[in-house]
Amino acid sequence: MEVSLYKNIDDKIMCTACLRYCRLSDGQTGYCGVRTNVNGHLNLSVYNMPYSFNIDPIEKKPVLHMYPGADILSFGTTGCNFGCLYCQNYDMSQRRKADGVYYTPEDVVNLAMEYNTDGIAYTYNEPTIFMEYARDIGLIARRHGLINIFVTNGYETDESMKMASEFLDAMTVDFKGNGNKYFYNKYISVPSAEGIFNTIKNAVNYGIHTEITDLIIPDIGDSLDDARKMLEKIMNIAGPYIPVSFLRYHPDYKLNIPETPLNTLIAHHDLAVSMGFKYVYLGNVHEVNYENTYCPVCHSLLISRRGFYSRVTGLDSNGRCKNCGYITGIKLLRNKKLIKG
Ligand code: SF4
């Protein structure tokens, strides 16, 4: 399928979907393996071609401050613009060619409705590489009252984010190794994490609900100095109320380092709290005190979580703390139906 996020430059085309800005000669495919110059036009080989579907709780994305308890149809395609050596979905992401089953945008939305889900998550691999397919699905999904969520590495261009703003309700932006440049070079094959901050700025400006995750990898991606620098930039862009989750890494694919110790994660949690972040979580661990949401004013329990399951206990139907009246802005499901706006 011919797609639109590209520019013609001399006898090449430049893909503008992600910050790699691959310049492609006729017949050449970009780093992600799914966008190809065909006679001066850009072809997206995974358009209509998802590789994997699942129905997940929204907490698994993780999106913690929007519609807790919502059921989300999650899907991804093959290909990726990152080369993470520890990728848990490497069978999809590192398969640098189209593969999967034929699903038009209407088919994907119909599947989401057939299973009575509340929305669609574009996840498992990097959705930016199939932005035009996601947009076409997302616009139909919106017309049917479904929400759209990106789980992204944040390597979007301004052009991509403009397209995302047409249909996206929420983004989880995933840092790795505290944004350390050397880590991004060596373990992800990406020059730097700097562009990710611009993506967060774009998301905030477009009014897309944004949450941050950061995968902490022992020894090679767990520097608290790096975490402080990363968090300072996030604070300057998005303020202290943006949810931040530090995720435990597990060995996979080509990286055999043991999983992240709990103490390392707690040190990151405590740093973020000391810097003024109001909603800080740990992920991929089952430690209740680090999964729950507490009121930033009176510290009452608002949402209790265990793994991917949540129970709203301390919020009224408008997302206000029942104890002190603080307006959290957290949107809630009512009678298992989305109430938007
Ligand atoms: S989306 Fe793919 S082709 Fe486009 S710039 Fe990124 S890696 Fe290159």
From TrEMBL:
Cofactor: [4Fe-4S] cluster
Domain Radical SAM core residues, every copy: 65-282
Lineage, top ranks: Archaea, Methanobacteriati, Thermoplasmatota, Thermoplasmata, Thermoplasmatales
Cofactor note: Binds 1 [4Fe-4S] cluster. The cluster is coordinated with 3 cysteines and an exchangeable S-adenosyl-L-methionine.
Domain of life: Archaea
InterPro entries: Aldolase_TIM, AmmeMemoSam_rS, Organic_radical-activating, Pyrv-formate_lyase-activ_prd, rSAM, rSAM_sf
Name of this protein: Radical SAM protein
Annotated keywords: 4Fe-4S, Iron, Iron-sulfur, Metal-binding, S-adenosyl-L-methionine
GO molecular function terms attached to this record: 4 iron, 4 sulfur cluster binding; catalytic activity; metal ion binding
Residues the entry annotates as binding [4Fe-4S] cluster: C80, C84, C87
PANTHER family assigned to the protein according to its UniProt record, in alphabetical order: PYRUVATE FORMATE-LYASE 1-ACTIVATING ENZYME, PYRUVATE FORMATE-LYASE-ACTIVATING ENZYME
